[in-house]
Amino acid sequence: MKNLENYGVQEMGSKESKNINGGIFGIDDLIIGVTLLVVGAIITDWDGFKAGISGGI
Fold this sequence. Notes:
Oligomer: single chain
Helix content: 55-70%
Shape: rod-shaped
Largest sheet: none
Strand content: under 5%
Radius of gyration: 22 Å
């Protein structure tokens, strides 16, 4: 890491890294949340989901 300091580059702190990577709530958390909601909706209305899949073919 010492040789990078000659070029004006320094290691990021953890707070700066979180800000760069989307903070506490990033896009990956949003995708996981939407996926869980969809799976929950399918499980709750399994008969309707099954009827919709079989009727669509």
